[in-house]
Fold this sequence. Notes:
By secondary structure, chain A is an alpha/beta fold.
Amino acid sequence: MFRLSSRRLPVSPAVRFAPALLLAACSALAVEQPQTLTERYERDVQRIVAAVQADNDAMPLLQELCDDIGHRLSGSPQLDDAIQWAVRRLRAAGHDFVGTETVMVTQWIRGEESVEMLAPRPMSIPMLGLGGSVGTPAGGITADVLVVNSFEELQQRGSEARGRIVVFNFAMPTENEREGAGYGAAVRYRYGGAGAAAKHGARAALVRSVTTRSLQSPHTGGMGYPDGVEQIPTAAITTEFAEMLARLQSRGQAITLRLNMEARTSPAPVPSANVIAELRGRERPDEIVVISGHLDSWDVGTGAQDDGAGVVTAMAALNALKKLDLRPRRTIRVVLWTNEENGIAGGRTYKQVHADELARHVAAIELDSGAGAPIGYGVEAQDKGKRARAIEQLGEILGLCRAAGNLPAYEGYSGADIRPMLDAGFVLLGQDADMTHYFDIHHTEADTIDKIDPKALTNHVAVMAAVSYVIADMDERIGN
Amino acid sequence: MFRLSSRRLPVSPAVRFAPALLLAACSALAVEQPQTLTERYERDVQRIVAAVQADNDAMPLLQELCDDIGHRLSGSPQLDDAIQWAVRRLRAAGHDFVGTETVMVTQWIRGEESVEMLAPRPMSIPMLGLGGSVGTPAGGITADVLVVNSFEELQQRGSEARGRIVVFNFAMPTENEREGAGYGAAVRYRYGGAGAAAKHGARAALVRSVTTRSLQSPHTGGMGYPDGVEQIPTAAITTEFAEMLARLQSRGQAITLRLNMEARTSPAPVPSANVIAELRGRERPDEIVVISGHLDSWDVGTGAQDDGAGVVTAMAALNALKKLDLRPRRTIRVVLWTNEENGIAGGRTYKQVHADELARHVAAIELDSGAGAPIGYGVEAQDKGKRARAIEQLGEILGLCRAAGNLPAYEGYSGADIRPMLDAGFVLLGQDADMTHYFDIHHTEADTIDKIDPKALTNHVAVMAAVSYVIADMDERIGN
């Protein structure tokens, strides 16, 4: 508020009498005393943050995406609708370029599914098949149960697994704010439980949902089959039922379950698309700063947090810069990725299709940590020096965003869709959110708009707009 | 630990030389210097609390009740099973009397039920019919929706309700630890929403679930129809969908729902039972202290918190006193009520059947606030002086239980099943629990054992055993 950014300051005395140099100096800011990022951008950033905090499109866009379209798994008609919607909305905002690029994606179809307990007493058990799982034979799989708490226990009791349904009752450790530390430990069972159980001759695997808080809420998510073992069906059950099955087993009760799943994967990939929109750079339009989230979701809930929040943050950030008539030197490109949840085909295809311009990418930003309050930026770069320099520069930029939060920059994970481009050499940035309650609703029916704090979402828009603007406008490429 | 209770102290010098008086003095404790309750019972209470904290039956009993039997609505085979189970378990503990008394109860049957949104887009909406609701005609009710946030708004927009499904989107205020303050405000819509909507010609009423935390969790519960208006079907939807419908309406979208409910109430009451077990008093066996919880639950989840916790606390408290061979002067009577959730027929019938001995009831205790940590005792009595005196005495007794928590006594609600006996003149006591998370799972599929903290449950057992023991043993009737 008290310093003015140099873009609107009179040029320095040194260039006042050199009209030929003046133009060059103004455009490249080659003043004798190089300005700090703070001196250069404080006013712009404050203007962006204040404007976004006063008004932005994120919540209205999120309502359209989640309430009117809902969940949107790769290959589903809903994802096609969401792609068309995003194109319409970005065109309506008047951006310089709006389009889609075709991406071939896996199409996994859930179909009807159920888990019934037959013994010791009949009851229905809430469940969600895991993405990528095969289905059961018609009529389902009826088998006795072995509950284990870990891969190690399965190894020890391997002989008891043959012919059974193995239940993995691994409890996710309590996550922390930044990264859901417990997720990594627990998700191994979701991803690899079926393979591990199949090695011991199990007929199916059920996995305790990856969460620390449950109200009988099954959590779906991706899984994979290792080579060389039978592909057996696998689903998530609630933490409540995983614990109940463990209690029944520990009390010596024999448990029989029947698992029915119609799940199947289409034999060939189907067409989907990344959505792209650009605010073209005023000086170096061929240099690119990507801002992004993923448009696909699992086929439950409405994908408000995962990753509707990232999608509308990127859209609203570009819209805000457009409305402010702030055109940076380089191009800011919104990418709304397809197929993050079960393949990352959107990120991989982008890397291929844009191979010839990757060298002109300056940075890519992704928000895929929900819409808890912004807490900082994770920075990745293949070159350590570049990463350190980027952390330093980004820290300075984020210091200007303090009206939107206390936001450090640190070495950390960027985002699943941009990470394939790590070896392209530019800087990858993960816009991080407070994840304290992220895994409560992750991949569940409860991932809905009411979980999104409008103020936190607004601050994400403000930060993404400000950071991408400065990175797209600053003299040097970030990290250099 | 440092004072000894008088029961094992030598009698005072004043009675040492009066053998005839000695016996009377010992039995009635008519020593010249009346002992305080603390002096008299500190050692006994500490012994009870320590023994219960070292070992008690509550969690094993709760596993049998919840895992092996599950939910148990009035008139259901599961409630019959639970009654038989409780009798078996109390008999196995060797109590002086164990039996049942027949209670005729309402039998409400849920049947198949669903809410489907037809417009603006087709989707299934999680729901639970409300206990006591009528069903829909075959084929369901298909109608446009009017969302209101309150009875007042319904009054203002009454003309828009005709022929519609009215959705009450009243958000439960955040509850506090002691009494779930927001529950009273919100439950009016669950109980009376259908009646209010019917007055305006609505065809059905949907009510936002009474909770402050939801993961797409519908909460059932009782409702009632006022005289003179059409009985229309009514169900709870999740807070998520209530908010979504409100958002859609505020964006001008027309909403059409189809409600299907097979719900019906049996034309005549059916037999159920209160379960009763007694530790007979050694001196005044006809004077009664009731300790209690309710055995019935809604027909979802497993009723672990509501009110399995109260049931096993009362059972385990009596078992603990039996094991300690502590027989108070008066009788301690466990009553496991039937039909708390939809009729209170258990409490009302008890009052009728035991009319001739109500004058000899000294106190009745109920735990029906879940199994959060014990936080104190609510005291009710028709006579204000009696209530004040009871609060004072109970405060002293609870002070002896400090190893189980910091437990004040205060004027407050006792319990739904014992409250019909308020006009019988004796003291009613509600054993209160921390309700911070009570309404998260209240009347839902998520009311399961994993939500029960074994340590808190143990402390409830310790407190109920100690308090009932002292009240059953102390010279005066509590409140006198």
